[in-house]
Design a protein that fits this description.
With 115 residues, the protein is mainly α. The protein folds into 2 domains: 9-75, Arc Repressor Mutant, subunit A (Orthogonal Bundle); 77-114, no CATH class. Helix content is 62%, strand content 7%. The chain is built from 5 helices and 2 strands, in the order H-H-H-E-E-H-H. It has helices spanning 9-22, 35-42, 46-58, 76-103, 107-114; strands spanning 62-65, 69-72. It has a two-stranded antiparallel sheet with strand order 1-2. A hairpin with a 3-residue loop joins strand 1 (62-65) and strand 2 (69-72). The protein is elongated, with a radius of gyration of 17 Å.
């Protein structure tokens, strides 16, 4: 995985795991890779992966079964979708509309490009 400089690596790792949940790579109650497995896969320090998993556990996206590993919390996909939609509407959409206005792009232009 190539990491960007715009946010901490552990947040980018958490985002990637959430993307995988959204893509149905992991479903409700599925076991996800261990902290060590994920850190090796992404070539990051184990402590960074621990922070990502802690972040997801605090957000109730994953849960830990002692001795067995981490699993996807039932309803996590719905929760992630709801939060991502909220953030998109609050943060990205206003900037998109601003750029559209500056560039003279209409909704019809967007529809045509989408199709």
């Amino acid at each position: 995985m190539t990491f960007s400089n715009d946010k901490p690596i552990y947040i980018q790792m958490a985002d990637r795991l959430m993307d995988e949940i959204l893509a149905d790579t992991y479903k409700d109650d599925d076991r996800i890779p261990s902290v060590r497995e994920y850190s090796v896969l992404l070539e990051v320090n184990t402590n960074t992966a621990v922070k990502a998993y802690d972040e997801l556990a605090r957000a109730n996206i994953i849960y830990n079964k002692r001795g067995l590993g981490y699993f996807v919390t039932p309803g996590a996909k719905k929760q992630i979708l709801k939060e991502r939609k909220r953030l998109f509407m609050k943060e990205q959409l206003p900037e998109l509309f601003r750029q559209m206005k500056l560039l003279g792009i209409t909704i019809d232009d967007i529809k045509a490009a989408y199709e």
